[in-house]
Amino acid sequence: MIKEKGQLLLDYINRYVSLTEEEENTLLSKVVYRSYLKGQFIVQQGDICKYECFVLSGCTKTFYIDDEGQEHIVMFSIEDWWTADMGSFITQTPADYNVQCLEKTELIMFPYDIIEDLYAAIPKLERFFRQIIQKAFVASQKRIVRSFSLSAKERYVYFRNQYPKIEQRIPQYMIASYLGITKEFLSKIKSELIAEQ
Amino acid sequence: MIKEKGQLLLDYINRYVSLTEEEENTLLSKVVYRSYLKGQFIVQQGDICKYECFVLSGCTKTFYIDDEGQEHIVMFSIEDWWTADMGSFITQTPADYNVQCLEKTELIMFPYDIIEDLYAAIPKLERFFRQIIQKAFVASQKRIVRSFSLSAKERYVYFRNQYPKIEQRIPQYMIASYLGITKEFLSKIKSELIAEQ
DNA sequence: AAATCATATTAATCTAGTTTAACTTTTATT
DNA sequence: AATAAAAGTTAAACTAGATTAATATGATTT
Questions:
Q1: Among the three residues B85, B106, B134, which one is the final residue of a domain in this structure?
Q2: What does the pLDDT look like over B134-153, one tens digit per residue?
Q3: Boundaries of domain holding B179
């Protein structure tokens, strides 16, 4: 794998735990670098998710198609985030979600069949993953609270403040889907917000 | 700590990792057993959450009071589940949530200041917690999807099927709060469901 | 047994957000 | 530059769920 790409991952991990040079080399020898084009799928609903992926560059959406064929966006992932269908990955059962690239996207992929070896070789990784998943879980719980206690307009304003970088890169109708509202209603909210100031 | 109480925790942990007898003894010597009465608070909004708690018996609700004074229930916890404000616990910052007992509740508490020692003494616990948090995160993501893609009636039916034990122990108005609807609307849903069959 | 307090029901009115559909603007393709 | 395709806007009619308020049921206390 290209040295400088791996370094981005190591920098990220070293914010949580400190790896020795030997551990760093072991890690980089086991993970896989891959680049996807805009529109390509990293995971498809129904497949078994074989990789947990760290995003080096680009942007993905994780979404779910319901029985009526409606798309519901669960999350976006950009640089320094993770993407995959974790439920499918940890249980090796068919994925509920699709993960699709909204831009050319570079990833470092952690294959399922080596991740146990990796934990055995580098126990610190167990701690690292525990810590980032704890953070993700807390964020997810907070999103549930927001979905119940805030209006659509409030949720949009929150999203815009929290993820200013994401908003600019993504079409409005996908943001509407992420917020759980229609694109028409988001359009109305935006024009109200403009009128307000 | 009472031997048989500790055994419930060990049985639970041993479903994920296998502890040696020495590790089991170390663990039980560090955690704290405690019983709360109905109505008592385990965590209060604004406090720093000092314990991650395993529920031996009883039932708790985790909730958030919004700016308008409205209560929003984030989760219920019963036997063999965990309860706390994890966000507050991991960052040691003021809690967003309250955790209150809906019945007499027995807990095993993992104090914040010993948890690092515990990970050091029993590295398997790191793996154990990683695994249960992964599961919790996946469940949380699925709940977000349901909150967007299902109607209130569908969410209620799902809840009833998923947690039949919880429904019987808890007043309707709390279930309404958990589902993100008013108690009046839940009452309407229930009478519709009765009329349907 | 009466009184009180918490919980649940019902119904009328209201509103945040959806649906449908026509139109406009922006971006990509030839 | 012209055309097509994708994304975004506006507005009218509609609906899921909220609000308000009155009533009913069920526990708990005295």
A1: B134
A2: 999 999 999 999 998 999 99
A3: 150-197
